[in-house]
Amino acid sequence: MNKLGILPPTIVLEPLLREWLLEDIGRGDRTTQALLDGEEGQANWVAKADGVIAGLPIAAKVFNLLNEKIHFVPVVAEGESRARGDVVAEINGPLDALLTGERVALNIVMRLSGIATLTRKYVEKIADLPTKLVDTRKTTPGLRLLEKYAIAVGGAVNHRMGLDDAVMIKDNHIAAAGGIGKAISRIRHQIPYPLTIEVETENLDQVKEALQYGADIIMLDNMSVDLMRQAVSRIRQHDSRVKIEASGNITLETIRPVAETGVDYISSSAPVTQSCWLDLSMKIK
Question: Is 247 annotated as a binding-site member?
Fold first, then answer.
């Protein structure tokens, strides 16, 4: 469904998968190694709950790291919804590799599918409006690349991947610098082109100061809907090119009223921090 979910290249992804496999395998899969000796077989992955599927190409890489003879065939495309009981992938090849890689592969897909599922619910609330949902840096350490991939598969847009992607002047930066104007002035001449400067604001006075000093993006943080609407009006009148982001306490109930204020983006950590894993299981035929 979504074209924004681009997987990290193999050179980036493979070391992560190797590390996670080593964590689980340790000095060897005692059960499988004692039980099997080269036998081949088939298995299905089955959804145990309704949801949006994400991460199947990553699961294929997990199995292929263990044995290149394994054929992992997704039955659904990334971002497609499936119901409980549906088969989402078919696998065939050496059974020892299937069983050894089962837990790591399933864990990844269940985690990412849970994120994609909740993301889709948020996105659908504002699907008819121009406002876009974006993610945050509130991600699980070590999983940011994949969690942000799942966000995109769910239909949202990725915010900065890390601190080096853009300048975001938050409340603590403002306090440390002695004000928004001072913060922007000190940063402006030290950052490389074409990094943008985003400023977090909590009231109309801060919005005015951010505009005065040429912020590229203005975040309206934890403002009421009425105050947000006033801020959007002032920003649009001053410079229609400035992008506006809303943030703070975004829920499935509040996201639409916030979007209706006219902001360009709504950022929320909820699809990551409040999502549940989408339960899947592997069944040997």
Answer: yes
